[in-house]
User: Fold this.
Amino acid sequence: MGDLLALIAELDDLNLFIHHKRNIVLFDKVNSDWYIPPDLAYAYHMNEERLKLFLEEKSGGNIYWKPNELSIDGKRSELNPPFRYHIFKEQYGINTSLEQISCIPDLMIHYLLLYNLSMIARYETEWWFDLIKTAADDTYPFIHTFLEITEIKCPRMIYHFLMKRCTL
Assistant:
């Protein structure tokens, strides 16, 4: 569950507060282009050219260079995973750890986490009770915040998925 929670962009501020590290690097938008910080190449232990090829391969997107920067053509309406969209900040981002990069769509990540939580609620009632009563670790804030985010984000993701299917 921790690996899946690390892929949710909206949980990054909570992760920074609790674990003192970021899981997602958000991109700045200038005009219609998304600018990727050059530090991401160093985090992935790649040079910028290799990062460009890697991101093109993973996303199937149109990525081009600006002087000393990697930028993504923002004229595309949507970027595919491994890029993640932060619904509240209205920015795209990508995981800081190459090990956590996943090409699983956001809607599937939310579904998997909700399914897992439903199984815990059904079959691990003692654990759930201890979590709510004691909140001894950082699990409860992540679950609570995830559920709040999912309540807002999932209907929008389902709507976009269905609209994309209707136009095909």
Notes: Residues 156 and 167 are 17 Å apart (CA to CA).
